[in-house]
Amino acid sequence: MRLAIHMLRFAPSKGKGASESLALFIRGFRQHGIDPVLHTYYSEDNSCEEAPCEMHEENFRGGYLSLQRHIALRMRESDADVHLLFGPSVLWAGGFYKKIGGRSPVAVYINNFTPGMMLHSASPGQRALSHFYHRSKWYAWEKLIGVRIARRVEKFIFDSPVVADIYGRFGYRARSRDIIPDPLDIRRIALVPASPAPFSREPRSFHCVYAGRIIKDKGVGLLVEAARTLPDPITMHIVGSGNEEAALRRSIETAGLSARVRMHGWKRWDELIGFYRAADCFVHPSRFDSFGRAVAEALACGTPVITADGTGSAWVAGDGGITFKKDDADDLARRILFFFNDPEARAAYAKRAVARTRLFDADIVSRQLIAALESLAEEPRPKED
Q1: What is the spatial distance between Cα 64 and Cα 69, in angstroms, rounded to a whole number?
Q2: pLDDT digits (tens, 9 = 90+) for 29-78
Q3: What are the CA-CA distances from residue 375 to residues 7, 101, 176, 364 (Å)?
Q4: Distances (CA, A) of 359 to 6, 185, 226, 349
Q5: First and final CA of the chain: distance in angstroms?
Q6: If you average pLDDT over each of 13-27, 125-139, 353-367, which comes out highest?
Q7: 198 with 377: CB under 8 angstroms?
């Protein structure tokens, strides 16, 4: 099977979750005798220690919809048996490709949400009215045109059923759909050497860890709000960086919580594993997400998870975690107290957490994706006009 993969940028060295997932998928492809060709279109943002396969890199200059048509033309030039569009940012290229006569089947791996779904918050410095106007235009375009363009695609592959449901309600339909989660390199996690805990473990102390981007959509401020009502032995550890970092530091200092809400900044991946292993629970307060790679990694380390209900990360956690009401700091505090007050229950959740991650094992998940793509390749192609 000749496989072409298309995405905006490939930057696993920068900790980009989608790129890390794709790197694992490509490893699985090559282990099974498939040598894909990876096309990137914002290649100046690429960051990888070495190319995972043959790569075609270019830097497209132009508008977002022009980019979709450009990718469609590149797809038309390819001799691939199957095209895999990786991420919703290239979703409509598949429909445009079919519109200009592309005959090879197309699958789209969907691991995030489109602009028109209006789930993302405004970035710092962007006025709310401007943000709303921009998103409203995308909403109208997607509802009236985008969903119809996408229906020419043969298959949507979602990384969680939560994402699949949101796309379905919005109106996105492909000829078929699969649920194939993001891959997790469980063996690599297990091989990280044991190291001292990254924070002091005093008797009766209890440590909650969050790791990820510090942006508004991740809801990290809920950790500060919850900490106000929690007893002194409970400490919050926030690992990561982002455009809300400075504001979060100020709110911690203003609340007088510097001793119990600690910010550790950005950490290497192997250092993150040390945080997961040392934590009593992992807290993921994101208001919406598709999967939650950090949640899966924490589960693999035997750390039970607390995450917002109705999110992709809640599905990932499964019976290895518990949920709280979205945006409800008081309910989050109650869930933390549940683990704090019941060590036996926490131990039971920790055991189930490890078992849960078998669903995301990279070898298993890669085989699922290969089977889905091979079934597309075997379908009869439409005849040329």
Answers
A1: 9
A2: 999 999 999 999 999 999 998 999 999 999 999 999 999 999 999 999 99
A3: 22, 21, 12, 17
A4: 26, 12, 31, 16
A5: 24
A6: 353-367
A7: no
Alpha helices for 175-241 (secondary structure H): 186-190, 221-227
**Rg, Å, the chain Cα set:** 22
Structure tokens at 368: 């699922």
Query: DSSP character for 142?
Result: I
Scanning the chain, the segments in alpha helix (DSSP H) are 17-31, 64-77, 91-99, 128-141, 147-150, 161-170, 186-190, 221-227, 245-254, 269-278, 293-300, 312-317, 329-341, 343-356, 362-377
Residue 170: burial class (beta carbons within 10 Å; 0-12, 13-18, 19+): middle
Residue 15 has pLDDT above 80, yes or no: no
**Which of 271, 264, 205 is CA-nearest to residue 238?**
264
Per-residue pLDDT at 385: 46
Only one residue has tokens 């900044």, namely 265
User: Tell me, what's the pLDDT at 360?
Assistant: 97
Give the whole-angstrom CA distance, residue 358 versus residue 46.
30
Question: Does the pTM exceed 0.90?
Answer: yes
The Cα–Cα gap between 383 and 36 comes to 25
- Extract the tokens encoding 71: 């990718």
Percentages (nearest 5) of helix, strand, coil residues in the chain: 45, 15, 35
Altogether, the residues listed in the chain come to a count of 385
Domain architecture of the chain: domains with CATH: 3-183+362-377 (3.40.50.2000), 192-359 (3.40.50.2000)
Q: What is the pLDDT of residue 288?
A: 86
Mean pLDDT in residue range 351-375: 97
Question: What number is the average pLDDT over the span 183-201?
Answer: 93
Cβ pair 213, 241 in contact under 8 A:
yes
The distance of Cα 283 from the centroid of its chain, to the nearest Å, equals 16
243: β partners: none
